[in-house]
């Protein structure tokens, strides 16, 4: 998506207003429920222009944001969108299978409409569990099909259960 980074928000009517804040927080809530908000440090995989993470931040779900995407252009637009909103967003070009962060770095890892872009989902899940702090949470949402959204919800729930068991041994 690098070639369309600068026009992506206009193409998909992406904004950072009440409509999109409600959409993002409702999607998050449908998977994760209420509570534990705000999460301290959050990472978004496949951030695109920052739509999901920035709207969740505006909605009070998280405090500090970090984003990754394979596209340098998307990472730059996400950082620029964050700056326009008054946020210092840290962004890196990376794939979900090799996250460039130390172990136990984040309270929350999120992904929105990204599962279908990840070639090795099993390796990506290993990386997510590696960078999550003990008791941290991973939430997938917004997959482009009902089946994809169901799978995302189940993966998020299973990942949450596995992370809780691992951190409570």
Q: Can you walk me through this structure?
A:
This protein is an alpha/beta fold and 169 residues long. The radius of gyration is 15 Å and the shape is globular. It has a five-stranded parallel beta sheet with strand order 3-2-1-4-5. It has a single domain, classed as 3-Layer(aba) Sandwich (Rossmann fold), CATH 3.40.50.150. The model has no long low-confidence stretch (mean pLDDT 85). Helices cover 43% and strands 21% of the residues.
Secondary-structure map:
Layout: H1 8-11, H2 18-32, E1 39-45, H3 51-58, E2 62-69, H4 72-84, E3 90-93, E4 106-112, H5 121-131, E5 132-141, H6 146-167
Parallel strand pairs: 1-2, 1-4, 2-3, 4-5
Helix pairs in contact: 2-3
